[in-house]
Amino acid sequence: MKIYGNSESIENAIRQILFEKSEEGIARITLNRPEKHNAMTVPMRTRLMALLQQCDLDETVKIIVIAGNGKSFCSGNEINEDWGQRVPGQKRMSLTMANRYASDLNYGRQGFSQALTRSKKITILALHGYCAAAAYFMIATRCDLVVVNPSSKIGALEARFLGPAGAVSAVHINRILGTKAARRYGYTGAAMSGDDALRIGLAHSCVPDEEMATEVTAIAERLAKQPEPILAYYKSRICASESLFQTNVREISGLLFSHFLQAGDDEAHFWTQVKKSGVSGALDADKARLAAATQKLSDA
């Protein structure tokens, strides 16, 4: 499989996604790009996918723990780079490119989220700080168990300026949070706290940051004591029930099509602003434009 990215990002990926495995059968995958809130580059996502697939084939692995170093678990995908799905100089995806990307997710199993979704192992997420965008709807909603802290900020924050991207997360969380909560967070792009996540069912437990490692380890070790065939059977039954909620890969491919092919003025304005003033400046400008538009409607 072709690995996208430049020579530097490809070389760094092995240090930015750490891996270790214990004798008890607990594999730990740790995002290690704390200076960027663990924003994932294209090579990082490729390595994450490869490690998940490696664990899936390893009969000695029972549990996979995913965590992040630094102040946050993950702020989503790195947006200040070419996502690697376009040819050089191409500003928008063509229909052919969008079809290939959706097909990879659907049938080729090329995406890290699909490696996580299809994994036969029990997955546990240690979530602290920010968990936004792709980290939210491709990791947090796909892990079997999620442990958070009270100050966590979780959600499809990009829904405020990317439109259909928020709908992708709403599809996933319908089966977990219920349709009302899915609509609230999908429509508004609001961030939920750790307490919110626990209350509405996304999180398994909510503990202070200093107790996170202990809590996650205790859960992993307790589960790892069970026979692997029993854990695999439980996981297969849960995955089979997903199709009843129409939240499998085929259902979201159309939404990915819509997201990558859209060329709305709002999105174009956002990415142009990112190049001028960075993500923070673009978000501030987006809020200002929204406030101005809302005031205009109020005055009409």
Fold and architecture overview:
With 300 residues, the protein is an alpha/beta fold. It has 2 domains: 7-263, 2-enoyl-CoA Hydratase, Chain A, domain 1 (Alpha-Beta Complex); 271-300, no CATH class. Helices cover 55% and strands 12% of the residues. It has helices at residues 7-16, 42-57, 95-108, 112-117, 134-140, 159-162, 164-177, 179-188, 194-200, 212-224, 228-242, 249-261, 265-299; strands at 17-21, 26-31, 63-68, 122-127, 130-132, 145-148, 153-155, 205-206. It has a 6-stranded mixed beta sheet, with helices on both faces. A two-stranded parallel sheet has the order 5-7. Strand 2, helix 2 (42-57) and strand 3 form a beta-alpha-beta unit.
Task: Provide the descriptors you would attach to this structure in a database record.
alpha/beta, 2-enoyl-CoA Hydratase, Chain A, domain 1, 2 domains, 55% helix, 300 residues, six-stranded mixed beta sheet, two-stranded parallel ribbon, single chain
Concise account of the structure shown:
The protein has helices at 7-16, 42-57, 95-108, 112-117, 134-140, 159-162, 164-177, 179-188, 194-200, 212-224, 228-242, 249-261, 265-299; strands at residues 17-21, 26-31, 63-68, 122-127, 130-132, 145-148, 153-155, 205-206. With 300 residues, the chain is α/β, with parallel strands linked by helices.
